[in-house]
Amino acid sequence: MASLEQFLDACEISRLVSDSDDSADDRHSGDDIGLSGSEDEEDAAEEDLDDDIDSLYDVADTGDHGQPEKADVEHSETGESVDEETNVFQGKDFTWSRTPPKVARVRRENIIVRLLLLVIRFDDKATRTERLLEDKIAAFREIWDKFIGLCQSLYFVGKAVCIDEQLLQFRGRSGFRQYMPKKPSKYGIKIWMMCDFATKYMTNAKVYLGKENNEVARGLASDVVCALVQPISGQNRGGRKITTDNFYTSVDLANQLKNKKLTLVGTVNQTKREIPHEFKPARQRDENSSIFGFTKDLTLMSYVPKKNKSVVLLSSLHHDSAICSDSRKPEIIEFYNKTKGAVDMLDQMCARYTVQRATRRWTMAMFYGMINIAAVNTLVIFAHNMRKDQPEKKIKGKTFCSELHMIW
Q1: Cβ atoms within 10 A of the Cβ of 85, count?
Q2: One-character DSSP codes across 266-332
Q3: Cα separation of 261 and 232, whole Å?
Q4: What average pLDDT does range 267-284 have in this prediction?
Q5: Is the pLDDT of residue 173 over 90?
Q6: What is the DSSP string of 148-216?
Q7: Residue 356's pLDDT band (boundaries 50, 70, 90)?
Q8: How far apart are CA 408 and CA 402, in angstroms?
Q9: How are beta strands 202-207 and 81-83 bridged, if at all?
Q10: What is the rounded distance in angstroms from the CA atom of residue 273 to the CA atom of residue 268?
Q11: Does 267 score more than 90 pLDDT?
Q12: Is the pLDDT of residue 16 over 60?
């Protein structure tokens, strides 16, 4: 019967487990600064580690291939013997294992992965306390910034981008966990993203860390958009079109983006003070009717999709009242509908072949989310290069993710 130490030595991870056990006693020794979402509180995974080590005994007792330890010594009908040490059926010319090799390999790899995930860390614990005073995600900041920098340097987005938020599913303890009832996950880590509308490539992202110093941020939406568009701003990089929803869109934001050589198209919250009363829902307005308002640089439009309802959009790209003949909708709406869903589509692509696993550590939740985004971005770059060499070849996401070993 294989012991736990022999099993871990075979997997080459006994050192990791021993290091984790040695540091388990001082995980909370003076490093807690009172933040519920700090990495030191997330380090309290000792109970999970004990549970997994206990489960290893069960697997180790069954042998390397997961076979039961005891078996019948001899079968009366066939007369074939069973080797008690190797737990295999020994015939005259063949040796038969009780468990398929593929299943045994998967079981062994899953145990290795689970143990590695329990002990993995993303920063230097010695300097974490000081960094946490200024940054809530100090435990993950370094690897996150490197990841965003690589995404920006490896691919240039197209002429139109979309800005929206993604919610990484997480229900553990964190000082910046958010509740968004309209999202499928409800609870998680909110990340603002900028994606290319054509390829869904994520080029910039920012984690929402909540209120700072218990103060409500003024102009938060404009600050987020200006921070995300920084890589594509300026005289040499400008000229791109930004699509946002009613949380971000405002006249002030459109003017700020104009100075950065960028244009804005997005829906507007009808409660904003710059919206005239005539642009709001009214019974006397006909269905499919539109109202336009113009300034030197901006166009405000109100469209009635059905009775007693209206949709208001602001655009610094369009400067006329053009209507599409087929749909009878303004061109502003047609452009918005075409470019608005890039971040949502990225979220769907990440969820289709996700590496997400249940965890109580917010750093691991962000790590899983980063791997999912990296897989989509890698697929976009791979497909772009493949079209140059083999334009007729089609790439399937499942095949690509399988080659990346993301499907377990």
Answers
A1: 7
A2: EE--TTSTTS-GGGS--TTSPTT-EEEEE-SS-EEEEE-SSTT--EEEEESS--S--B-TTT--BHH
A3: 9
A4: 88
A5: no
A6: HHHHHHH----SEEEEEEEEEE--S--TTEEE-TTSSS-EEEEEEEEEETTT--EEEEEE----BTTBP
A7: confident
A8: 9
A9: unpaired
A10: 11
A11: yes
A12: no
Can you spell out the DSSP letters for 350-400?
A: HHHT------S-HHHHHHHHHHHHHHHHHHHHHHHHHHHH-TT----HHHH
Q: Which residues pair with 212 in a beta bridge?
A: 215
Question: Which tokens sit at 101?
Answer: 């090799």
Whole-number pLDDT of residue 12: 46
| Cα distance between residue 130 and residue 123, in whole Å | 12
Residue 162 has pLDDT above 60, yes or no: yes
The residue written with tokens 């269905």 in the block is 287
Q: Are 292 and 301 in contact (CB under 8 A)?
A: yes
The two three-digit tokens of residue 60, written as one number: 């180790």
pTM over 0.85: no
Tokens encoding 96: 């038969």
Pull the structure tokens for residue 396: 């399937």
d(Cα 253, Cα 267) in Å, to the nearest integer? 13
- Residue-range domain boundaries for the chain: 4-120, 135-344, 350-403
Residue 88 has what pLDDT?
67
For residue 82, the model assigns a pLDDT of 47
The stretch 218-246 carries a mean pLDDT of 85
Task: Quote the CA–CA distance of 163 and 340 in Å, as a whole number.
Answer: 8
Buried b / exposed e over 206-221, threshold 16 CB at 10 Å, is bbeeeeeeeeeeeeeb
Contact by Cβ (8 Å): 187, 170: yes
pLDDT at 206 over 80: yes
Q: How many residues does the chain have?
A: 408
Fill in the amino acid letter for 233. Answer: S
**Residue listed under structure tokens 């290091």:** 19
